[in-house]
Each structure stands twice: as C-alpha cells, then as structure tokens.
Design goal:
This protein has helices spanning 2-9, 11-20, 27-38, 43-79, 83-89, 92-107, 112-121, 126-149. The protein is mainly α. The chain has one domain.
Length: 151
C-alpha cells in the first residue's frame, strides 16, 4: 500500500523514502519500497533521488550526533585514566581512519547512525559529509533496490 502510494508521488516519493533509508528503524521498509519503485521507475532515478533523500536524513542525524555525541565522548576521554586508550585517539591515523570507516558503514546495509557517529567524533565538516553520503548512498540504494526489485 505504501509503495503504491509512493509511486504516485514520483520523484518526491523517492526522496521521502530515501530519507527513511538512513535510520535503523526504517531502513528495512524503505529498502523494500525502493525495490518496489525500481519496477516502475529506472534504477538510476531511484538510486539518485533516493540518495538525495538519504543525504537529507544523514545531515539531520549527523548534526544531532556531532553536537551531542562528540562532546560526550570527549568528556569520557578526559575522565578515562587509561593513557594508552587516550593516546590511541590522538594518533594521526585516527583522524582519517574514523571518517573512512564511517563512509564504509554508510555504504553497507548497516544503519547510517553508526557511520555518522564515527564521522561526528572525527569532527568532519558537514560540507564534506554531503558528497561522501551521496556517493555511498547511491551505491547502497542501487545494490539493494536492484536486488529486491529482482525478487
């Protein structure tokens, strides 16, 4: 029923489903709807406009996580007496490895919140998040929608 209603909305419906593709609670139904939409729309159109919606959802989640989670983790790091763990987080490799792992998690079927939290901890600028999120969400949506659409 939802997938049929979304088909009537066209591109706007794909963008709305893309927004729901980012959350742990809504990724499964959104993936199914995207797979259904591939049957009536082109895969490229579903992947691109679904990724635009996913970027909107990712940015909203990222802005929330960046402000709250990063400050909480930094507070816990200051309270932690383990110097080895504290030294590990100050290594230069951590600054580029954390966003890279976050981007890989965004591209995987895992919920985006985990990857966005990793990017928020690394204090990645929002302007860098947008192309990374878009690219990896296009890939993920194309793979998932084509797999579900073929069933």
């Amino acid at each position: 029923m939802v997938a049929y209603s979304t088909t009537n909305l066209g591109i706007l419906g794909i963008v709305i489903v893309g927004i729901f593709f980012t959350s742990i609670f809504t990724i499964t139904p959104a993936g199914v709807v995207l797979g259904y939409l591939v049957q009536s729309e082109s895969l490229l159109q579903v992947a691109v406009f679904g990724a635009i919606g996913a970027v909107i959802g990712d940015v909203l989640i990222y802005l929330y996580l960046k402000d709250t989670l990063a400050s909480d983790i930094l507070y816990l790091m200051k309270k932690n007496k383990n110097k080895v763990l504290r030294h590990f987080f100050h290594l230069r490799i951590w600054r580029w490895l954390t966003p890279l792992l976050g981007a890989i998690i965004i591209a995987s079927p895992l919920p985006d919140e985990l990857g966005l939290a990793m990017m928020g901890i690394s204090k990645m600028r929002t302007i860098l998040l947008i192309p990374i999120s878009f690219t990896f969400n296009v890939i993920a949506i194309a793979l998932i929608a084509s797999a579900i659409g073929q069933m």
